[in-house]
Amino acid sequence: LEGPPKEEGADVTRVRAKTMKDGLEGWITVSGNQGSIYLKEGGNTFKVIKDTILTEAFDIEATKEDTRQIKQTTRKLKPGELVEVREWEKKQEGTGLTRMKCKAKADGLVGWVTTVGNTGIKFVEMV
User: Is the peptide bond prior to 4 cis by the omega test (within 30 degrees of 0)?
Assistant: First the structure.
């Protein structure tokens, strides 16, 4: 959101940022006055570690008619496949699933991927 200014007197670098998990905003120390690195730029590439699906819509709760349409517009993602984040993960309230919008590196298809199931099982991990 803002930064990185160097703080006078303390000789530290900070950035104003927003957390992806809960949306909290605040100042984060990037590097300390002794050269310690507290925050570094992360990646946006994830690897599938457990079979999951890529869907057009974020919401996967559906009626029988919608379910038929969802099956026609989904693609199975296999372990080892790579995806790039387009929209960071958020929790779907009705199902308890955590999902994020991604682009499959293999074929460029964009859709929503379940990252964490409602029982805590992880389907993707950061590379």
Answer: yes
